[in-house]
Amino acid sequence: DEQLVESGGDLVQPGGSLRLSCAASGFTLITYWMKWVRQAPGKGLEWVASIKPDGGEAIYVGSVKGRFTISRDSAKNSLFLQMNGLRAEDTAIYYCSKGDGETWGQGTLVTVSS
Amino acid sequence: QAGLTQPPSMSKGLGQTATVTCTGNSNNVGNQGAAWLQQHQGHPPKLLSNRDNNRPSGISERFSASRSGSTTSLTITGLQPEDEADYYCSSWDSSLRGWVFGGGTKLTVL
Q: Fewer Cβ atoms within 10 A, N terminus or C terminus of chain B?
């Protein structure tokens, strides 16, 4: 069975940094489009970033460009999201997801507050 | 990032049929199709139908998706209590070069 497990969420002060991880099992992560999607408390889903299978081109939603970096490690079969310059509006559950959304992790909570 | 348009809520009776709509444009739903996701409170989303309107294995035949132009629809037949959830559409937008989601539809089963 395919599985995604996120980790790294925490309480952080505005302006701080966090690195989220997403460990994949049951499939080879680098052969698929992978994305990070977030959900603010009580709100809907918002796409954050994606990485292509070939070449690893990364794309981002405008509000995180220049602050967040998506990457992957084939040896660890893992996806990452480096988040810098965090703002209160980045507070959300962050999910990693495969392809069209056929597999999702359970999510990891990021809270940005002083 | 412009999103897709869904009705915020819907109520239907047990055993009835619900149809949730999602409207985009030619840059997304019209040419890229749309996936449908179900999310129960406190849980991650689950894929019900991919952008080719195909159900993943294990998804009930009571869930079906279709598209007409830039509007996609999710139809749920024989509503059960466990169908009470939030439903989201999502698509790739070739103009924005990113994924877009609908705002979600909260389905209540009476």
A: C
B56, B61, B62, B64 alpha-carbon torsion, rounded to 10°: 60
Is B73:B20 a contact under the CB 8 Å cutoff? yes
Give the residues across from B3 on adjacent strands: none
Residue that has been written with the tokens 């030619």 in this structure: B26
Which backbone phi and psi does B83 adopt, to 5 degrees? -80, -10
Q: Does B87 touch chain A (CB under 8 A)?
A: no
Coil, helix or strand at residue B18: strand
- pLDDT reported for residue B3: 86
- Number of Cβ within a 10 Å radius of residue B65: 23
Q: State yes or no: pLDDT of A61 exceeds 70.
A: yes
Q: How far apart are CA A49 and CA A34, in angstroms?
A: 8
List strands edge to edge, sheet with A3-7.
A3-7, A18-25, A78-83, A68-73
For residue A58, what is the nearest residue in chain B, using CA coordinates? B98
B54 touches chain A (CB under 8 A): no
- pLDDT mean for each 10 residues of chain B (110 residues): 88 97 96 96 96 93 96 97 98 93 97
